[in-house]
Design goal:
Elements: H1 3-8, E1 17-21, E2 27-29, E3 43-46, E4 49-56, E5 67-73, H2 80-87, H3 89-92, E6 97-102, E7 105-106, E8 112-113, H4 127-140, E9 143-153, H5 155-166, E10 173-177, E11 191-196, H6 205-218, E12 227-231, E13 234-239, E14 248-252, H7 272-281
Parallel strand pairs: 5-6, 5-9, 9-10, 10-11, 11-14
Antiparallel strand pairs: 1-2, 3-4, 4-6, 7-8, 12-13, 13-14
Length: 284
């Protein structure tokens, strides 16, 4: 999808992105050419509530150059600071990238959630948080609207898979590990790299397969004819026969032991950050 088409579909609060073309042909946001904030934003306001976030701005940030924006979502029990540490996305980026790690709201039992009970599938509560994050950073920094990505693990993976369906007209690609999906009326096409361990008992692989099938159908691909492919250290199936620009890579893996040698098939396996960031790098 071109930047102009993307912008035409944005709600008013997100109209901070402009379809101005740079010399390289990329779209750019209204934050391009402006001096960046003295300190990165650490919150956005959504529905009158302040929502915390952590932002990593690259040392090589250039106000005149459109940058990738990666919004990474944590799971049910780990907060944004913890996943920022173990995701390792910034270390795997091969070009200057804006990374944002929002914080979910705590529930009564102390765990986190990206939605409220009774939310309709097409409008989970924190879809609006994603919208607000994109608007805030597009207004403050130089963002390429055609290269906005989302990443998540566990509950965060289920959220970004769902977001890829509901906001597929705004998201270029998704990287998810051990997630399901809350399907809704999918919009647009979106590339996806999806990792899941068949031995996972916290999020059964059947949930991951349901998410895969939803995104494959969203892109109009043929679910019956994947091709073998690789993503870093992972062996995958690639669904891209009818929309090569938006492949869906499904990667079952057998990384059962975590860094401490503990059996934990629900983990963020070694090599994931490199696989995801290289996948995003290859989407043009």
């Amino acid at each position: 999808m071109t930047a102009a088409r993307w912008l035409a579909l944005l709600p008013v609060p997100l109209f901070l992105l402009s379809a101005c073309a740079t010399a390289e042909g990329a779209g750019s946001s209204v934050g391009c050419g402006r001096p960046p904030p003295a300190t990165p934003p650490d919150s956005v306001v959504v529905d009158g509530r302040e929502r915390a976030l952590i932002a990593d701005i690259p040392a090589g940030y250039e106000p005149g150059r459109p940058h990738r924006l990666v919004v990474a979502f944590h799971g049910r029990t780990n907060d944004n600071a913890q996943v920022r540490g173990y995701y390792g996305l910034d270390k795997a980026a091969r070009e200057p990238t804006l990374f944002v790690y929002p914080q979910a709201l705590r529930q009564a039992d102390g765990t986190f959630s990206w939605s409220d009970p009774g939310d309709r599938s097409g409008s989970l509560r924190d879809y609006a948080l994603f919208d607000a994050v994109v608007a805030r950073f597009a207004g403050s920094y130089c963002v390429d609207p055609d290269r906005i990505f989302v990443v998540g693990h566990s509950l965060g993976a289920s959220f970004v898979n769902s977001l890829a369906c509901a906001r597929g007209d705004r998201i270029r690609g998704v990287g998810s590990v051990a997630g399901g999906i809350v399907p809704s009326r999918c919009r647009g096409s979106v590339a996806a790299l999806m990792l899941h361990n068949p031995a996972d008992e916290l999020v059964p692989i059947s949930e991951g397969e349901r998410a895969r099938d939803t995104l494959v159908a969203q892109n109009g691909q043929d679910a019956a004819s994947p091709e073998p492919a690789g993503a870093g250290a992972f062996r995958c199936e690639r669904f891209a026969d009818r929309d090569p620009a938006n492949p869906v890579l499904w990667c079952p893996h057998d990384r059962d032991l975590n860094a401490r040698g503990r059996y934990y098939p629900h983990q963020w396996p070694p090599g994931t950050a490199e696989a995801i960031m290289d996948f995003f790098q290859g989407l043009r």
